[in-house]
Amino acid sequence: MITLLTYPPAFGQFSGSPFCIKAAHLLKLSGQHWKRENTLDPRMMPYKKLPVIRAEDQLIADSDMIRAYLEAQGATFDEGLSELDKSTSRAFIRMAEEHIYFHIVLDRWGNDDIWPEVRDTYFASVPKLIRGMVANKIRRNLLAAMQVQGLGRFTPEQRLARLEPDLDALVTRLWQNHFLFGDRPTAADASVGPMLSAIIASPGETALASRIKENAILMGYISRVEEMLPTGGCA
Ligand SMILES: N[C@@H](CCC(=O)N[C@@H](CS)C(=O)NCC(=O)O)C(=O)O
User: What does the mean pLDDT of the chain come to?
Assistant: First the structure.
């Protein structure tokens, strides 16, 4: 039995981390038996991040390596896709994980109005007396990293403009499909779906959340991907 080490449910979702949700989708799609184990502290993990899976007494960290492990065990996430589709899938996954994800980070960690709720969700295991100090230090580091990444220098309006073409690209693919590559979910949906749903699940009504909510195609897609994975759920 595989164990998914994941951040706990948050903001009405399977986990506060879209990467943990991605890993859960991959596990579900792989057909393996698995269970979840919640933790709020990734410091003992190989890259000090989650998700991680425990399988056959080894720890496999990073959602891409989890995918590779499951594929080595026989999972086929992209069955029936042409080589051309597979290359497009790779680009969509990178778009979701290396661009859309950072908007979620800024929406959650960069907004003073919702910070108390985000802090008390992500740092619930830290005693209240020191929670503010611990959380604020990590927040400062993360926001400094977002300055280096670049999106942290944009206004919310500029960020929305930067995200628009990504959303358009997704809508173009979803116009006539239930999922990004047809009627069945593939690896790309495991990455893209959780990023979009994390945007609309974040506390507060951000410009990005409103933009997605007004698009019926994106909202239908988010629901279909979410339905694949119950909030608390496993195999
Ligand atoms: N490339 C990693 C990204 C995982 C990741 O960024 N996890 C975040 C939560 S969404 C994390 O654990 N961050 C803890 C930290 O940076 O201290 C993957 O695909 O698994």
Answer: 95
CA distances from 76 to 138, 185, 214 (A): 38, 11, 34
Alpha helices in the chain (DSSP H): 18-30, 63-72, 83-95, 101-109, 115-122, 128-149, 156-174, 187-201, 207-213, 216-227
Look at ligand 1, atom 9, and give the residue with the nearest C-alpha. 17
| Domains in the chain: boundaries | 2-72
* pLDDT over 80 at 232, yes or no: no
Q: What is the DSSP letter of 178?
A: S
Which among 7, 49, 60, 139 is the best mutation to test ligand 1's pocket, defined by most ligand atoms within 8 Å of the CB? 49
Q: Determine whether domain 2-72 maps to CATH 3.40.190.10.
A: no
pLDDT the model gives residue 233: 52
The pLDDT of residue 163 is above 50: yes
